[in-house]
Design goal:
Elements: H1 2-18, H2 23-74, H3 79-89, E1 95-100, E2 105-107, H4 123-129, E3 135-136, E4 140-141, E5 148-158, E6 161-171, H5 173-180, E7 183-184, E8 188-194, E9 198-201, E10 213-214, E11 229-236, E12 239-248, E13 253-260, H6 261-264, H7 266-309, H8 330-370, E14 374-379, E15 384-388, H9 391-394, H10 407-411, H11 416-426, E16 431-439, E17 442-454, E18 460-469, H12 471-485, H13 495-505, E19 513-521, H14 523-530, H15 532-549, E20 555-558, E21 563-568, H16 573-588, E22 591-592, E23 595-596, E24 598-606, H17 613-650, H18 652-672, H19 676-687
Antiparallel strand pairs: 1-2, 1-6, 3-5, 4-5, 5-6, 7-8, 8-9, 8-13, 9-10, 11-12, 12-13, 14-15, 14-18, 16-17, 17-18, 19-21, 19-24, 20-21, 22-23
């Protein structure tokens, strides 16, 4: 401090002696500095305007780019609903529309153009095809002639195949008002033109007229400015001034800032006046300040510095500076001693807390490293900061494969859905979501929860999540879900699911709706003769035939012991008749223990809402029962023959026995006076 005091004293004296001699040099230097500052200020103002204007475009560009990726991945399914949702969530967007390569438009506003209009020759469409990036159109009047708009567009590809162009219109009224009302200094102004040299905004142009005005109307010399630059002594509106200009937004627009020379150089004029006044003041008080500083500041300060240099908290926590009045700065010394007391107290507390934190950190790390889950942390850029847990080993990965990457970079398209939940967490919303991954042919299911991390100011600085393997639980739930809606024997849907589907399909969008009922003939006699295992075999064979006969959107169910039913949406009488004949034919070829299977079928169609679904079902059941009655005796006789054949082929004495019993019964009937027709029928049934 003593050395600094001496230097200050000598420097001040030298300054007082040579100040006037170097006045001119100092003034020129200061003037140049102010000019540079004015220049930098103007350039900074231009940059700020670019940023403010670009924000309107780039927010839309980001959404258009995201939609391009969405269409490339998911196609046009559900696209209209998604476009409407995006517009509702982004109030800065006027509308979003997608034009496919075959001139089919999907517009968030609901607008559907007539087929006679081909939008593929529009500038926003052709501009998107000419670049791999987002394209920006010049300003133009929209179709309803009530807004000046700019279109942001991007081509959508699937590999090398052009799918179409996604585009969004921006109402530039906000940009126009921003530029028009922008003040450059007190008398300067700004204006904006597009790449066709049309004025977007200018203080002398009324944006409410909705008419494009060429820059030539303001000053034809402005068209020679390209790129980014600075031009002085440029005359505009009869006044000479400074122009700073820049092209931005992919060179689609150019912003100009103009300020008259009189205002631009006003600071230099003011500088000269101030510099002169200050010189006199400095000369007057310089000597007095040197004396006062030396006696009342520098000397006491040197004493204080000496005492402060003796402080060493690592060696002596109890040292305190002297508080004698003669050394000066007594208040500072007292405050410093209070700070030392507080520092000592907190230093001791910190040492204890440090030990506790060290132990706690070890406990937490041991728990994290040995957990069967996956624990991860992301930063505000959605990149993995840390990954722990044995769950990472289960999916044959290591933490280093994730650190520094986003979930999309780590998992590709499979991470897109998870990225949505990461965004929610960074917006302050905790979420639970499921995801899966295939490793060595095994599909693992995980349940994850993610929550935001806050700093001491309640600002979100990242998020932390836990992923747990729920593969076994998922499998058990899938099995339960299957059992709840399927028949345990045939694997077809059960009666409960059939009833639920009847309610769903009883709607005009599924008409004509076919209802079929089936009843396996002779199941009871088959069960009684051979046992239920053979009856189950017959039901399984019938189930296979039914599954093979219907389409993937049809519902086939076992609704009783030997009863089946089917729901066929959007069908015709001819198709149902074909299905019925196919089922009847294929089942007739199936035999179980020499018994050929037979099935009774009834069906009906509901064509509109005037008919009751219960009446349709009742009609189909009645047709089935009539069919069953007409074929029942024949099926029973065939079954009895087959059983008798099987029995007599295995046991010859049973055939002889049955023939004798049949003959005795017939003789007994004749003695009782039973008619010949009835005796023949009884003899036939008993024999077979």
């Amino acid at each position: 401090m003593k050395r600094f005091s001496s230097i200050q004293f000598i420097t001040t004296l030298a300054f007082l002696v040579v100040f006037l001699s170097f006045f001119a040099i100092l003034y020129m230097y200061s003037s140049q500095t102010i000019s540079n500052k004015q220049y930098n200020q103007l350039i900074l103002e231009r940059s700020n305007m670019e940023i403010e204007i670009e924000k309107y475009f780039f927010d839309t560009s980001h959404v258009v780019g995201t939609l391009s990726s969405y269409i490339s991945v998911k196609g046009e399914e559900g696209l209209l609903d998604y476009l409407v949702e995006v517009v509702n969530n982004n109030n800065f967007m006027f509308s979003i529309y997608y034009l496919s390569s075959d001139n089919v438009m999907t517009n968030s506003s609901g607008y559907t153009p007539p087929p006679s209009i081909d939008f593929r020759d529009r500038i926003w469409y052709t501009a998107a095809l000419e670049t791999n990036d987002v394209a920006y159109s010049p300003v133009f009047l929209n179709a309803t002639q009530d807004k000046m708009i700019v279109t942001v567009s991007k081509a959508v590809y699937n590999g090398d195949e052009l799918l179409g162009v996604i585009a969004s219109d921006i109402d530039i009224l906000t940009i126009q008002n921003f530029v028009k009302n922008k003040k450059i200094g007190d008398t300067g102004f700004a204006f904006l033109i597009d790449k066709n040299n049309n004025i977007i905004s200018h203080p002398n142009v009324d944006v409410g007229n909705l008419v494009l005005v060429s820059i030539d109307m303001i000053n034809p010399n402005l068209t020679k400015f390209n790129g980014t630059g600075f031009q002085d002594d440029f005359k505009m509106n009869g006044t000479t001034g400074i122009v700073a200009y820049s092209q931005f937004v992919n060179n689609s627009y150019e912003v100009f800032l103009y300020i008259p020379n009189q205002e631009y150089n006003a600071s230099n004029i003011l500088l000269f006046s101030i510099f002169s006044i200050l010189s006199v003041i400095v000369l007057s008080i310089g000597t007095v300040l040197i004396f006062l500083n030396q006696r009342y500041i520098f000397n006491p300060f040197n004493y204080l510095v000496e005492d402060i240099n003796k402080i060493d908290m690592t060696k002596n926590l109890r040292y305190r500076v002297s508080t004698e009045n003669k050394k000066g700065f007594t208040e500072i010394r007292n405050v410093l001693n209070t700070v030392l007391d507080t520092t000592t107290h907190y230093f001791e507390l910190n040492q204890e807390a440090h030990r506790e934190l060290l132990y706690e950190n070890q406990r937490v790390m041991l728990l994290i490293d040995n957990t069967a889950d996956i624990i991860f942390e992301i930063d505000k850029e959605k990149r993995f900061v840390s990954v722990f847990g044995k769950g990472v080993q289960k999916i044959k990965q290591t933490p280093n494969q994730y650190i520094g990457k986003t979930v999309i970079e780590a998992f590709g398209d499979a991470g897109i859905e998870r990225d949505i939940y990461y965004n929610k967490a960074l917006d302050g919303e905790s979420s639970i979501y499921d995801w899966k991954i295939e490793v060595d042919g095994i599909m693992y299911h995980f349940e994850s929860s993610i929550s935001p991390i806050y700093d001491e100011n309640e600002h979100i600085v990242g998020a932390v999540g836990i992923s747990r393997d729920v593969t076994e639980a998922t499998k058990r739930q899938d099995e339960i879900d299957f059992i709840n809606c399927h028949d345990y024997l045939t694997g077809l849907y059960n009666r409960r699911h059939y009833a639920e589907m009847l309610v769903k399909y009883d709607s005009k969008e599924y008409y004509p709706l076919g209802i079929l009922n089936f009843d396996l003939n002779g199941l009871k006699i088959l069960n009684d003769a051979y046992g239920h295992l053979y009856g189950d075999d017959a039901l399984l064979e019938v189930g296979k035939v039914l599954l093979n006969a219907f389409g993937e959107h049809d519902i086939i169910a076992r609704i009783g012991g030997d009863e089946f039913a089917a729901i066929v949406p959007n069908t015709t009488f001819e198709r149902v008749e074909t299905i019925k004949n196919k089922i009847r034919s294929e089942i007739s070829l199936i035999s179980v223990e020499n018994i050929n299977l037979s099935i009774a079928i009834g069906f009906d169609l509901k064509y509109d809402e005037s008919a009751s679904i219960h009446d349709v079902i009742k009609y189909a059941e009645n047709k089935m029962y009539r069919n069953k009655l007409s074929e029942g005796m024949s099926v029973r006789n065939h079954a009895i023959r087959a059983i008798h054949k099987t029995l007599t082929e295995k046991y010859k004495e049973e055939r002889v026995h049955s023939e004798r019993v049949s003959a005795l019964c017939k003789a007994l009937g004749m003695k009782l006076g039973i008619k010949n027709e009835e005796l023949n029928l009884f003899h036939f049934v008993f024999y077979f």
